[in-house]
Design a protein that fits this description.
heterodimer, A: 326 residues, alpha+beta, two-stranded antiparallel ribbon, B: mainly beta
Chain lengths: 326, 350
Amino acid sequence: MRSGRQRALRRSLVAAGFLVSILAGVVLYFLPAIQVALRDTGQVNTSLGGTAQLKPVSASEHLSSTSPFTLLLLGSDSDSKFKGDYLTQSMILTRVDPATKHVTMMSIPRDLWVRLCNGSNGKIDQAFLHGGAQCAIQTVQRNLRVHIDYYAWIGLQGLVSVLNQLGGVNVIANNPVMDDYYPADLSGGNPFDYQRILVLPGAQHMSGTLALEYVRARHDDAYGDFARSQRQQQILIALRAKTKHVSLVDIPSLATSLGSDFQTNMSIGQVSGLLPIAGSVPLASITQVVLLPPYTNNVYIGGQASLMPNWSLIRPEVANYFPVVS
Amino acid sequence: MKRIAILVALMVASGLAANRALAMLQSRPTTAALVNTTSPQVRLPGTIYVSQEGSIYAISGSSVRRLALPSGGNWTQQRVLADGTLLVIRRFDASSDLYHVSAAGHVLSRLTSNDPSTSNQTIQLDHWILWPSMSPDGTQVFFATDAPKPAPNKSYEVDFSLWSASLGVPFSIGDGGVDGATRWSVPDMYTGGDIEPVPLPNGSLLYSSYANTGKGTVVTVLGLQTSPNSRMHSLTTPQQDCGAPAVASDGVTVAMVCTNSGQTADLEVATLAGTSLGPARVVVANCLCNSPSWSATGNNLLYMNAADTNGNFGLWYIANAGGAHPVAPRRVTDASVDLDATSAAAWSSR
């Protein structure tokens, strides 16, 4: 009787040992994603004050439902010459409606001259420099009078790594993109050096580095930052196709690729919930908006080339696509 | 004791196995080198030259061989000459050069020397040469280059213009233009300029011309010039956004890729009549098509396309594409192969 109980106990211990070992293997596999989740997601204090506030969200809200939501996508030159003081060269206000599978992307020009979150006037790309994502969100909310639910920030190297991790993207390059003054800041040398780049036109497969050159080059471009904004939206649309093939088991390697070049106030569950939504949006259901003149006018302020917003045109345009706040 | 050790080892192994099993479930994009794939699924006559990851491959029937080109740089944009030799671009990070090579890949001559200068470190003075093309009579080589530089070190402008030079006569690309060559076009500034020259039997030049619409977009039209520096006739509208022209051996059947300002493209065929283009017929719709090229004789079309938005770019074939009843497209290369879609296949009858 006693030996029978001992045998059962031994069997239970062996089974538990195997279970713990397998669980440890699974936990170790997802460890990079867990670390990113703890470090880079859900960290924003959602009470920002002011006229426009980030609405507190629960982990299951929005992305597990059919409610539309607004996401501010931020991109920074995060190379060594900035020493952690990053501007946001790319700001794309995105509205996602999971029920209708419709996405609107509005690029906010980096040179837009606005009242920043700290009360001073400056280019909108400086908001992130002054107060990180919270200041960038608050500045966009106050100036565009729009409500933002989430944000996601990515640095240059993170973007290149993620694109490479996903196997690159297929894109139709609009025209030959050439730049003799492209920053040579990711090659490991002097980050202030220049390099020549050339992206050929037409349909092609782009690696992470080539895609970055395509969205970042601006010097030999009739429309400078505006054209760059259009190309950034194009790469996001191409990335959307890639998300169809991303599953939960891909998250750890993606998290490792991103390293410290990614921040968001979405939980890891919300990020993974966004992937199937993005993948299911048809191309025809994506609206792209770039605030060209007359929405903005070129001006020089304090010697800086800037864009003066025409709020009487911009705000109604924003209200067409995004939930506004008074 | 020994049994316990074995059990612990098995437990650790099961943990490792679970970890590796998850890793194996990852969606890893893979591509294969053309030369390592199985025989082409569609066997076409002659030899077809394609570019993949900086190498040139020759597909002859069911065999594939890699050309023995010198190492270094990316070899791309191959063109076959009447004698079976090739013109090929060798592209480096900041410059490119034009080479004349044998069908086996041995260098016969180097036609340009755009190496970055060791004495002058100003990279803005480096040059590209791309899209080489031979005149139908085999005497003139046409190309696009970013010379002249309007104001090196003072301007950001760098755009392609079109030039022609006699094959066998030396020419050199410099900041002021191309010595020993004839300039054909003046590009619209800050657009990328004029590219993809296709010399026609009647001496005219067909090409892709990028232009600023003045409304926030840069588009391309097919342009036609009857002589160097003459007025460009627009054969397509800015709304059609057509480029990548290729002309069949009849000299008038034109294949082109049009995006209609969208995120996908149509592969279209139309007939050239003087300085205008007849109605276009879509032979492949809503594709990621690029770089069409025709067979040396007849009206069979090759082009690059990805089967879907995530797929590899492969070589596709349409028999009788220029006729009234084209055959449905067929993929020539294996689906695992990802070719350079910006480098048109060159089809030799040899």
